[in-house]
Amino acid sequence: MSNSQTVVVDKSGHKVRQMFAEIAPKYDLMNHVLSMNVDRWWRWRTVARLAPQSDWQVLDVCTGTGDLALALLKKMKASAKQPRNQSTSIAGSETEQLGKRILSSDEARQQSWSGVQVVASDFCRPMLEIGQKKAERQNVSRLQFVEADSLQLPFPSEQFDLVTVAFGLRNVSDTLGGLQEMARVTRTGGRVGVLEFTMPRVWPLSSLYRFYFLRVLPRIGQWFAKNRSEAYSYLPESVGQFPQYEQLSALMNEAGLNDVKFYPMTLGLATLYVGTKA
Ligand SMILES: C[S@@+](CC[C@H](N)C(=O)[O-])C[C@H]1O[C@@H](n2cnc3c(N)ncnc32)[C@H](O)[C@@H]1O
């Protein structure tokens, strides 16, 4: 999608964090409106393909308002026999406090993670606060939100069976660094799943979508969100400049993930990439 008018997208942490803080209250609604609810289907397909088991520990980074984390947890509970940590003896007060509030990175470093099935991290607190309220409304347990930068995750190496990111890696200033952090905290043999927008490669959808994505979507987005930081111009610009398909798979390889496969969805509007920690 790059052309001579391409603006290099500013992905510095403070800029991205501020932009998402501004759109946080309307983020979920905008997602569903602009994608015509297809985003729900993409997350559903992602969870179905990754098939998290009830005895896994899962991390969802750049979780935003937590939709993928909640969907993963739901699937894990549905496949539940006996969660691995359910029988682990944990200090009562620690178990009771789990998931009740968002943890800082420093608090997360002290945490044992026993009893937690899904950890959902993001560096934008207003997004996490909406996720936390959603989780409370759904009365879920064993989900813990953590305020953390994906480039410096406050978790031990080899902690998680599955590490995911949905529509978030594109916003991280160092794509390879973000993938390396995800790979670091994944156990050997565990998997990393990346769900991200892609540009369809099939004509005429490729041209039609380019028009919608570049010309129509930013206008609808700005009108709805009345957002000064132009988050919805940022969206097509950041997608256009982000590695897709084979290029992102190669980066995942470079980050230490093997056997990387990608699965385009809805004719390539979004793609799930899956790799295994070598
Ligand atoms: C487009 S939203 C995606 C949210 C969610 N995963 C979803 O599927 O709707 C991108 C999120 O990535 C977060 N993010 C971007 N860069 C980050 C970083 N370096 N560390 C942590 N979170 C980051 C933003 O705060 C934002 O919540």
Structure notes:
With 278 residues, this protein is an alpha/beta fold. The protein has helices at residues 13-34, 38-50, 67-78, 92-97, 105-110, 125-137, 175-185, 205-225, 231-240, 246-254, and strands at 58-61, 118-122, 143-147, 160-166, 186-197, 257-265, 270-277. It has a single domain (13-277), classed as Vaccinia Virus protein VP39 (Rossmann fold). It is 44% helix and 18% strand. The two termini are 33 Å apart.
Largest sheet: 7 strands, mixed
Terminal CA distance reads: 33 Å
Give the DSSP E fraction (strand runs of 2 or more residues): 15-25%
Whole-number tally of structural domains:
1
What's the CATH topology label? Rossmann fold
Bound molecules: S-adenosylmethionine
List keywords for this structure.
disordered N terminus, 278 residues, binds S-adenosylmethionine, 7-stranded mixed beta sheet, alpha/beta, 7 strands, 18% strand, Rossmann fold
